[in-house]
Amino acid sequence: MDTLRAVTDLLIDYAVLFAAILVIAYLLPAGAFQLVMRLAPPASRIQSRPIRPGQVRREVLLSLRAVAIFALYGLGLLMAYRAGWTALDPDWAAWPWWWPAVGFLAAILMHDTWFYWVHRAMHLKRVFGWMHAQHHRSVTPTPWSILAFDVAETIPQFGIFVVLVMLVPMHPAVLGAYLLFDSMVNAAGHCGHEIIPDHQRTHWLLRYTNAVTHHDLHHSRFDCNYAQYFNIWDRVCGTFRDRDAPPARPDRAA
Ligand SMILES: [Zn+2]
Ligand SMILES: [Zn+2]
Question: Does this UniProt record's set of keywords contain Membrane (predicted)?
């Protein structure tokens, strides 16, 4: 009877994690930027290449598979949390009032560096085909492609959350808010319309953050703009291509 109870509890935990990740990391951000795609003026479209028939269906199916895998990894993190092995703390009174903002900012900076290097590594010839190729089948990305990963890519994509949960003292609600923010930025980068004013390119500070075109160029060219939030690592490593770069290499035409 105890075993049955334990299995039932585990299944309930898994179902809750699956639903939470599905809504926060996929349905909300992809749905919001699907709406942006509908409302954005045609002139803001970045690529002239159309979305391929069946592309969105493939992106959704791959993303659902990734959510199912993330929920499995999440079960491990939940067990670690309950055992007291993580840096998460549900007691707001344990933190100074300014700490949630610091933890959130630390998550952004750590994730940006993690993603740049992990992403560059996934583009190495030896691993690209089985680790990152599925995500790049969307040459003209849509918001539904944000979690369209090979099974192997789910490991580094989830890995940063293991690092954050283990190392950055945060309230679980701050972690949830960060996941939503990260997913929104990710969906924006795949919406195919430049919604950030051109002024961003020359602003003294905003020029170091990515606009939509930067990740769109990554999808059409494969060889530039590896970072998520900022383009500092791309500038330092010579992989930055700004908004006026040609959108696609001819041999990558869909
Ligand atoms: Zn890539
Ligand atoms: Zn992408």
Answer: yes
